[in-house]
TrEMBL record:
<dbReference type="GO" id="GO:0005737">
    <property type="term" value="C:cytoplasm"/>
</dbReference>
<keyword id="KW-0902">Two-component regulatory system</keyword>
<keyword id="KW-0597">Phosphoprotein</keyword>
<dbReference type="InterPro" id="IPR002545">
    <property type="entry name" value="CheW-lke_dom"/>
</dbReference>
<protein>
    <recommendedName>
        <fullName>Chemotaxis protein CheA</fullName>
        <ecNumber>2.7.13.3</ecNumber>
    </recommendedName>
</protein>
<dbReference type="InterPro" id="IPR036641">
    <property type="entry name" value="HPT_dom_sf"/>
</dbReference>
<dbReference type="GO" id="GO:0006935">
    <property type="term" value="P:chemotaxis"/>
</dbReference>
<dbReference type="GO" id="GO:0000155">
    <property type="term" value="F:phosphorelay sensor kinase activity"/>
</dbReference>
<dbReference type="GO" id="GO:0005524">
    <property type="term" value="F:ATP binding"/>
</dbReference>
<dbReference type="InterPro" id="IPR004105">
    <property type="entry name" value="CheA-like_dim"/>
</dbReference>
<keyword id="KW-0145">Chemotaxis</keyword>
<comment type="function">
    <text>Involved in the transmission of sensory signals from the chemoreceptors to the flagellar motors. CheA is autophosphorylated; it can transfer its phosphate group to either CheB or CheY.</text>
</comment>
<dbReference type="InterPro" id="IPR036097">
    <property type="entry name" value="HisK_dim/P_sf"/>
</dbReference>
<keyword id="KW-0067">ATP-binding</keyword>
<dbReference type="Pfam" id="PF01584">
    <property type="entry name" value="CheW"/>
</dbReference>
<dbReference type="Pfam" id="PF02518">
    <property type="entry name" value="HATPase_c"/>
</dbReference>
<keyword id="KW-0547">Nucleotide-binding</keyword>
Length: 543
């Protein structure tokens, strides 16, 4: 497995060699037309970016040469110098030297000696004439070989298309494997097994090509935090951890705005002003931590602050004021259920509207983004000590783990992301409270509903639950969404497997209880349940 340093070096090399190729092209254009401002501006930009990247990676020599070149191109842009005479061969020599230095990094060779070049660059910056004898390296240069980088850039849409094709292949692979087992031909089974292995390797190779470090997003936040903290008149220390954790690039793109909302929310709502913190016995500077880690097949991103925490009673009162629940019902809700109101559209605890907070948007946007990925959003908070939001994300959105089950002789799937556990209980292990069927699972009372009723009952609320209608052992899937657990009674469990989810075609795409379809190895079309939609439906129909 590549180390973090190796991956960063590869990224640097890919960009640096691309910069080098562009430099050669633009400086040739500038030589033909010294008034070409576009070429001049591009050369200045390339030198500036190469300087910054090289210094960040610790390649000081490359950074120094790029800095000298950048300074001279800046002088030419400001009309203090002209791209003519002895300045031209020095700058061409500088581009050549940068190419040699970049290739030396890739080949782990010693950095070429550039003392003479650096001396000439310094002379030009001071307005002096360069030493032309030190510039003449024509013999070394028509013997230079042309080289191509072994790194290429691939557009995401091309990888998306490739992943879709792999998804189709996986579906057909499973069907062929099932057919080979039914037919019983040893030769066909051998070929099907080989296809299974090749398709697996292809799938994971494509998925691996789409992975990026979360650091590519995390590293953009220091400036964001600084700007938001300045606007809020707060002092914030940002801590980043787990930047080398890898995730599908499309997932990272989808959660970008969600993560931005959480960071702005932590600074605007969570962390107190310096005066408030000192009064509470805290350091004046608040601490905001963004941390990534892996947990089984998931990536967890935590956004934690050491601020004031969430006042459960304030949220409870606000929910009643907003008409989201009654005062009687709110009084009986546990802390997790109360915190779930924070994700309702337009819900805000801000006392005043600012550029950062109080506009009634934010956490609901975060929830929608996570739901679209089949992920989860958790919130933990201690009043006076701080709050942590946890984004539970799949590593890839193309292939998902799922639990298959049967209901009325049809197969269905539930993403493992939302599956908490599975239990088998006898009717006398269930009890009825207020017309609601409850099961005690790991010391917690979980509402239980017959999935058949939930799917087919379209008119009015669900009928009051009774134990008498239950016959024999009940197979129950415990799902978890938005800190709420719900037990779904099904006919029987089938198995756990990876599935490729395809969107529903019209007009079925308007049924929001299903998140898509997949095709099983038998060729049977299997509906994939949308757990967030099911949970919302149950809450709307509960007695």
């Amino acid at each position: 497995m590549k180390t973090r340093e190796q991956e960063y070096r590869e990224i640097f090399m890919a960009e640096a060699l691309e910069y080098y190729d562009s430099m050669g092209r633009h400086i040739s254009e500038l030589e033909k037309n010294p008034a070409d401002e576009r070429a001049l501006n591009e050369l200045f930009r390339l030198m500036h970016n190469l300087k910054a990247n090289a210094r960040a990676m610790g390649y000081a020599d490359i950074g120094e040469v790029a800095h000298g070149m950048e300074t001279i191109f800046g002088l030419i842009r400001s009309k203090e110098r002209e791209f003519a005479g002895s300045i031209v061969p020095v700058l061409f020599a500088g581009v050549d030297a940068l190419g040699d230095m970049i290739r030396a990094v890739d080949e782990n060779n010693p950095t070429p000696n550039v003392e003479a070049l650096q001396a000439n660059l310094d002379r030009l910056v001071r307005g002096e004439e360069p030493d032309i004898e030190d510039v003449d390296n024509s013999d070394e240069n028509a013997n230079r070989k042309l080289e191509l980088s072994d790194l290429v850039y691939i557009q995401i849409k091309k990888l998306d298309h490739l992943m879709n094709l792999v998804g189709e292949l996986i579906i057909d692979r499973d069907r062929i494997l099932t057919l080979s087992q039914e037919i019983g031909s040893p030769a066909l089974q051998t070929a099907a097994t080989h296809l299974f292995r090749i398709a697996d390797e292809l799938q994971y190779s494509v998925m691996d090509a789409r992975l990026v470090n979360v650091g590519s997003l995390f590293n953009k936040f220091p400036r964001v935090v600084r700007d938001v903290a300045t606007a809020e008149n707060k002092e914030i220390e940002l801590v980043l951890n787990g930047q080398d954790i890898q995730i599908d690039r499309n997932i990272l793109q989808i959660i970008t705005d969600a993560l931005l909302h959480l960071v702005r929310n932590a600074i605007g709502h969570g962390i107190e002003t310096p005066a408030e913190r000192q009064k509470a016995g805290k350091p004046a500077r608040g601490k905001l931590t963004i941390n990534a880690q892996t947990e089984r097949d998931d990536v967890l991103i935590h956004v934690s602050d050491d601020g004031r925490g969430i006042n459960i009673e304030s949220v409870r009162r606000k929910a009643v004021e907003r008409g989201l629940t009654t005062a009687e019902a709110a009084a009986g809700l546990d802390d997790n259920a109360v915190r779930a109101f924070l994700f309702e559209p337009g819900f805000s605890m801000a006392k005043e509207v600012t550029e950062i907070s109080g506009r009634g948007v934010g956490l609901d946007v975060v929830k929608l983004a996570i739901d679209s990925l089949g992920g989860q959003l958790r919130v933990d908070s201690v009043l006076g000590q701080g709050t942590t939001f946890t984004l539970v994300l799949p590593t890839s959105i193309a292939v998902k783990g799922a639990l298959l089950f049967e209901l009325e002789e049809r197969s269905y799937a539930i993403p493992l992301m939302h599956t908490d556990s599975v239990v088998s209980l006898w009717p006398d292990q269930l009890h009825v409270v207020g017309g609601l069927l409850l099961a005690e699972v790991m010391g917690e009372n979980v509402p239980v509903v017959d999935l058949r009723r939930l799917l087919h009952n379209s008119d009015g609320p669900l009928p009051l639950a009774t134990r008498e209608e239950l016959r024999g052992r009940q197979e129950i899937i415990i799902v978890n969404y938005n800190n709420r657990k719900l037990g779904l009674i099904v006919d029987r469990f089938l198995r756990q497997q990876n599935i490729v989810i395809k969107p529903m075609s019209k007009p079925l795409d308007t049924i929001d209880l299903f998140g898509g379809v997949t095709v099983l190895g038998s060729g049977q079309v299997c509906l994939v349940l949308d757990v967030p939609a099911l949970t919302r439906l149950f809450l709307a129909k509960r007695p």
